[in-house]
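Lecture 7 notes: from sequence to structure.

We start with a single chain of 344 residues. Read the sequence below before looking at the structure.
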Amino acid sequence: MSTTLYPWQQASWQQLQQLRERLPHAILFHGAEGIGKTAFAEAFAQSLLCETPTADGHACGSCIACGWFAQYSHPDYRRVRPEILDDGDAAEGEDGEAADTKKTKATKAPSKEIKIDQIRALGDFMNISTHRSGMRVIVLYPAEVLNTAAANSLLKMLEEPPPQTMFLLVSNSLDRLLPTILSRCRKFALAMPGRDEALQWLKSQEVSDADGWLAEQGGAPLAAFEASQAGTRETMDDFLRQLAQPGVDGALKAADRLQKMPVPDLVAWLQRWLYDVLSVKLSGTIRYYPRYKKELGALAQRVETAALLQEIKAVNDRRAIAEHPLAPKLFIEDMLLEYSTIFS
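Now the structure, written as tokens:
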């Protein structure tokens, strides 16, 4: 795996080195989604396990520990994440983990949560001696998908951490974490990169219309890159054209066309659209969809601020159930019809 920092993370890395003299037992890296927080945490994990780190705190990349880390086989490292993020990497140290995962995937859809069994599995790992009397490091992400039982189990570990053990948590949403977990971690914020720096990186990845993709993802370069590779721009524009011309007939037809699209994507596109309408109405600015400046301006003149705020709240509430809609087509119809009413 690659633990190279992104260009916009250099200043944060230097700031992080100041904690090395008195390391806390748990650090919570937080910030916007799509800016490279997990890569940053893994780079720090490797540097903590490296046997010959460089003067600026980076892992050397050539010692035995770095070799193990690159293969996810370091005996003192564990990575905890939802099954759905498991991309078939080699086993991560626990006996039989890879085989068990493949068996699970063959029988049911991979979980989007971090489960209690994954946290309990850390117990045996933390009760054995570390390799060569070094540190043991646990990287857990995204922390907000810990289910209730797993979060409570992790909390007990954070309350009484074993010696020479470092927890590195990564989160996109601090407000979705237990306050007690937050209180037991040293919080470390990772900032959104500047627009010019993000654009330069996207262009180095040969992303066409980098400016447009970056705007649509709120300035997050990794999210912009992923979106540019997903092949959904045509579908998104179809959806946005419907939002630009709200109406009952259009809503029903759009729901029929889009029913096979991931519903969370549609909800996210609508959320950004509504925020742009509100922003145009209040300040004349557009954040996400500058390509639709004319359409957003026209809608802003047609809607009352109170109704717009109420609709934003309603769509935010929909986000919570968008992962598992009982009937996707009906969910989309209802969402678009409700949206249309605020412009009536």
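Residues 55 and 82 are 35 Å apart (CA to CA). Keep this in mind for problem set 3.
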